[in-house]
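Quick one: structure for this chain?
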Amino acid sequence: LQVQNDHGDATSDLNRRMQFQNKLAGVCEEMCKEVGAYPKCTQCPKFVEPDSTPGVMTWDELLEHMDNLVSWGQDQIKGWHKQASALQVQNDHGDATSDLNRRMQFQNKL
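Got it. Here's what it folds into:
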């Protein structure tokens, strides 16, 4: 059986096929639940087994989380360095008189 799409377009055909396969994947998972094979579905396409420890962080998950935090922290520090450099460059090009006036205003407030 050859199915032709509305526009004869390969992209549209591929999209329709993906929609059909996604629909079948949901049906396959439901069928496995009915026959008691779930969550050990080895026949279902791209089956992802549910979390075996919901609400509890395992050591592997904790280590992955810590690695992600290290990476995030390094990115944050890089951003702070860029921001500080940009502020320094602005101050270097600023007027010395303006800087002196600001300092006097600050000291007068104290």
